[in-house]
Amino acid sequence: MDKEFGGYFTSLDRDGSVYDYTKYMWMQWRIVYMFSELHLSEYSRPGWLDIAERGFDFLYKHGRDETGHYYFALNRKGEPSIAAYNIFSDCFAAMGSAALYKATGTDRYRRAAEDAMNGYLARIDNPKAQWEKSLAGRQRFLSLGHYMMLANLGVIMDECLDADRYRSDLDSAISIVLDRFWNPELGLMFENVLPNGGFDLESCEGRMLNPGHVLEAMWFILNYFDRNGGDPHNLIKVAKIIKAALKTGWDTEHGGLFYFMDAQNKPHLELQWDMKLWWPQCEALIACLYAFKMTGDREFYDWFVKFNEWTWNHFRDPEFGEWYGYLNRQGAPTHSLKGGKWKTFFHLPRCLLMSVRLMQDIKNALTTTEFGEI
Amino acid sequence: MDKEFGGYFTSLDRDGSVYDYTKYMWMQWRIVYMFSELHLSEYSRPGWLDIAERGFDFLYKHGRDETGHYYFALNRKGEPSIAAYNIFSDCFAAMGSAALYKATGTDRYRRAAEDAMNGYLARIDNPKAQWEKSLAGRQRFLSLGHYMMLANLGVIMDECLDADRYRSDLDSAISIVLDRFWNPELGLMFENVLPNGGFDLESCEGRMLNPGHVLEAMWFILNYFDRNGGDPHNLIKVAKIIKAALKTGWDTEHGGLFYFMDAQNKPHLELQWDMKLWWPQCEALIACLYAFKMTGDREFYDWFVKFNEWTWNHFRDPEFGEWYGYLNRQGAPTHSLKGGKWKTFFHLPRCLLMSVRLMQDIKNALTTTEFGEI
């Protein structure tokens, strides 16, 4: 916490020292979300709700531009630093505010959540606004990230605000993800698909795979099915997609899930495609456990064990705690940071909290004999 | 060459096969530049001038938006694909057109070069135009890249157009690079410096080092001194900056020059900071030879030998020719591509052509005894 100006420091080096003071909105709101959720959890500690509420005050006061959208970043004092060019700032503001409403019942958090959610929905068709660089000659794509987050937000709104007004957006996002992004012939879920259906195998963008995104999207959908029931055919499809993403994304040579891939193993535009980031592994852990819980298919349990071993052997910092964020393909850290522009107290604690709960559910559902086996 | 629509394919896999059809303007104009220069060189071959001229026709016809700035990318057919958000498209258009004028004396190439150069100069204070995301709360910086390219463009305009009208821009760019970006206490040349002087060691942006940029900027300046004479104090300073960049940037563990670094060894924002890219090594090779030629200091020769060995041992593809573009820190290729969004027929051939010429100059300048020693 920045006790002088408000908000949080997220650029934290290995030992927790601050190496940059920029307040990136994605990171700030994810901390509000996580401390609200942890306050509500069986692990709650005094002071955690206060951490979330003080963050909200700072972000709500300083965070929005004149159109109501959240900036991408503030400076340490809370002055606007990077414009609201990215709709996921609104997305994480909605998540954080909704969780804070669930934790407190305070109406201003609910209103802030709804405003941010409506801001997100209003921009989903033109997310980059005036900062859009694409022109008519560029192939347009639907992006898995947008629909994945819409599905996640819908579930969170449903759960935190007890509001079913986003249900149709949610149902439509899930249908789009399962029907449009999955290519059954190739057995791959793509990151970018053609707006009118189909896949573009002629371009880097069209061939791009993001296995961490796929696994995250799939557990969001399983979470929805778990809460609301779902067509058994869809459950079978989700299980198949998860297996495909695990198999495609796992590095058989060095272990861990690749960051980005190309559907035809052609060169990837991103230099860091082969790195092992903490978050895709976190999403894989949750997806494996959720799929095991929902299907009972032992293959998911085996994948969980594999990821569990690899991640704790490679990401954990036994001296200063927390996980490293970035490993090279071989599994050695390339950065000493524990938090930064894109990593904060979010994916790992969410993964741990979800995993503990899923393991409890699995344990409760199994007979003593079954449990003994695993 | 795309014989159907014009322009060039630059997304070429290891064996030369095309893996994406986007025509990125930086890459397209760099090919025009390189084939014009090679046509003028002692290695000229029939057809090379035609390659440059056919490229010019396509790019001049399709490449500019309604304000006269060059787009960032066209699609295969030449339709605008990515907007003119990046001023270096104008910069490379000026370079390519100027070299083509030098090769042909055709006036339309000269006019195109001057228009693009003026477009570049007009935007240097607000290079991102409407795509700028920075707001008042963000620390502004002067960027080495902009002044480095201005110095390079000034020399090229001077040489190709025989025009001294850019001489004052050039002189001012060289002064700014040498006076403002070099920190004598720390012995480092920074990538971003405060507009009113000084360095920001509190932020990732302020601490950023880009040793490849430094070496490129320094040989541009040596090239200028070589052609026009220069203050001997400045020559001594440039030599010191080159030694500092080589020493700071060289990876003593695995060899090669790092891509990005942090002045205080704090975490770098970029995931790929520790990768070994082809172009910083190319710039290092030229800088070492140029500094050896201009100063006679044997230390530069030793550095050249070191880079020469490391690069040819790691980047060369003995089976299909050309160099790989991207190696991991350990020196193994992470991408099979020979060309892409950022790599094309430019840094490597420029480096080879410059190196051969510099070695000839060095040989001619040395007495027989001196030459025998090296």
UniProtKB/TrEMBL annotation, chains A, B:
GO terms for biological process: carbohydrate metabolic process. The keyword Isomerase applies. The keyword Isomerase applies. Keywords: Isomerase. It comes from the Bacteria. GO terms for molecular function: isomerase activity. InterPro entries: 6-hairpin_glycosidase_sf (IPR008928), 6hp_glycosidase-like_sf (IPR012341), AGE/CE (IPR010819). Belongs to the N-acylglucosamine 2-epimerase family. This is AGE family epimerase/isomerase.
